Amino acid sequence: MSAIPFIAGTASASETNGYGTGSYGIGAYGGETGSETDTGTDSETDGTDTSEPSLENTIRFDGIGTSDVSEYEFTVTGTVEKSRDGGASINEEDTIDGNRVTGSLTGWRDAFRFSGDLDTLTVTGQARVYVNGNRVDPADYGGEQSQVVTIVGNGTYSEYQLTSDGSVEVIEGDDVTVASEGRAEGSIERGVHRLRLTGELVDFTFLEGGTQVYLENQRIDPADYSGDVTLPHVIVFDGTDASGPTNYSFTVDGRVSQSEYLGATIDESDSLDGATVTGVVGVGERDAYRFDGSIVDFSSAGEANVNVEYDASL
Fold first, then answer.
1. Which of 80, 97, 114, 180 is the most exposed place for a label (fewest CB within 10 A)?
2. What pLDDT score does 40 carry?
3. Which of 143, 163, 185 is the last residue of a domain?
């Protein structure tokens, strides 16, 4: 049997921000909704801005109308420095390391002037981004815009699990764990759990109890999030030509679920424990599993053929 290739994952920086147990609702965003045009130039000369024509481009992060911290990181192919364009403030905590910039803002604006091209861009939070006055999507620059799910304890013991079609990271909370790349589970009675999703929230289920859940600043009804995720890769254990049963076990570093791919059967005796699968495929039968990430451990004893298809059809 040939070696099974591995797929690298991604991670994002963590953030901290306290939540109480009161209302979170935020209305419409302030500021621009599509594109905007700069109407002036800065007259201040404090050493952080520049009027040199070589820094011909601007990038502005606009957090007006948001209440949570937004974090950002970007790189350019030229040089970069802080700016007051569009009424932005100069934040000493924002850092410039060569052509790479990292920073954060809450409820206001950060801006920079740069030469060359914007190479990469990642934003965590609700801040909007404008390049040369035009709103842009971080995904167009190889980045991603994540969102935060907040679970607020109300004194009732509650157990929950959530699924994203991207990755999940725990920001805050003692009794919450990431069970696999896109799935987390936890229990809460009081306090706050916060999790960052790089994809969409697909499913949120209370296994016991129930309490308030927020997606960014908006309270949501978990019943509205009850979809299924179709994982991209498939592993098939094919016992069609085998003379006896085949025992198998494998582990992935992402998510995994049973599948009926290529006519495979769902066998309740096969075991899924987090990201580890243990099972037996009988003579003339097929077992199949969809997964994402990479297979990090594998064993098989028997004559069944094993096939792995990456980016398999539905």
1. 97
2. 42
3. 143
